[in-house]
Amino acid sequence: MDDERREPTILDAEVAGPSAIEPSVGVPREIVRTQEDVDRVEKQIQLTAEAHRRFRIAALRVTKSDDWIDESGKPWLQAKGVERLAALFRIRERNVKAEKLDHEGGAYTILVSGELASDLLDPEGWVSSVGSRYSHEGFFTGGDKKKEPVYGDVLKAAYSNWKARAVTALLGIRGLPWAELEVAGIKREDAGAKVSHAGAASMGKMVPMKLRNISDKDKFKGAVKEKAGSYPRWDADKKQWLVPEEAVNVATQWADTAEENRGPRNGGSAVQAGGGGAAEGGSE
C-alpha cells in the first residue's frame, strides 16, 4: 500500500516517461506533457521576451535625453520624465506612506513606500517599491554641515525617489545601461545633468580652490550646480572649496578680494588653486 501512495521519482520517469512526474512549480501542469508542448511554451517565452524588449524601447522613447541624469555613470530618470510616463500610462498610486528614521546629531532618513499600477497595461498589476533620502546630503545642505535642511524638501525628494523607482520598475526600464537607452534615442552626452556621489564607484573630479569673500554662498553654490550638475563642497580643515572641474570658471567669477561681494564679477585674480592640483572627491 505504501508503494502505491508514494510520490513518483526520477526513476519512474525513466520507465514511464515525462508524464509520470508533475512539472515544476510555475509551469502549468496541464499544458506540458509532450515535446510539442515544450516547444510551444519555449516559443511563447521567446515571444514574450521580444515583446518586453520592444515595449521597453517604446516606453523609453516617451522620455527625452534631458529627462535623464548621469549619476556616477548610470542613467537615472528625473521627476519630469517620471511624470511624463505616469500620465501616458495612466499610473495610479495606493498605500503611499512616509516614515522618518532619526539618527544621531539631528540627521534623519525619510523612507517612502507604496504601490503603483498602470490602467493602460494592467489595472491590477500592482508593483511595490521603497524610496529614501538622507537629510544631510549635500543636495539639501550645499556641503555646509551646520545648515539645517528643510524637512519638506527632504520629504518631497524621498517621494520623488520612490516614484522614480516604482515607475521604472513597473515599466521594465529600471537599471538599464546607457547603451540600451541609446537604442531609443536617449544620448548620454545630452543628459540633463551629471552627478557624482561620495562613495560611488565613479567620482567626478573636484578642484581645490581658495575663494575669498563670497558674500552670498547659496547663490554661488547654485551657480556651480547649474553649470556642473553638482554642488561645491567646503573643506573646513584646509579652508578651501572643492569645486567640480566643469565649474571652475564659474567659481572664479564669484571670488573677490573686496570686503563685500554683490555677485559674480569678471576675472579671477583672487582665486588660488589649493592642494597642488585636482583632487578626487564625491559631489552631492
Structure description:
This protein is of the alpha+beta class. The protein has 2 domains: 65-178 and 186-195, Enolase-like, domain 1, CATH 3.30.390; 205-280, no CATH class. The chain is built from 9 helices and 11 strands. It has helices spanning 2-5, 10-16, 35-62, 79-88, 138-141, 151-170, 178-183, 217-228, 248-253; strands spanning 68-71, 74-77, 91-102, 108-118, 122-134, 193-195, 205-210, 233-235, 240-244, 272-273, 279-280. Strands 7, 8, 9, 10 and 11 form a 5-stranded antiparallel beta sheet that branches. Strand 1 (68-71) and strand 2 form a beta hairpin. Helix 4 packs across helix 6 (151-170).
List low-pLDDT spans: 1-25, 198-203, 257-284
Could you please say which CATH topology of the largest domain applies here? Enolase-like, domain 1
Straight-line distance between termini: 71 Å
The CATH class assignment of the largest domain is: Alpha Beta
Overall shape: it is elongated
Structural class: alpha+beta
Report the total helices. 9
Portion of residues in beta strands equals 15-25%
**Rg calculated over all Cα atoms:** 27 Å
Largest sheet: 5 strands, antiparallel
How many distinct domains? 2
CATH architectural grouping of the largest domain = 2-Layer Sandwich
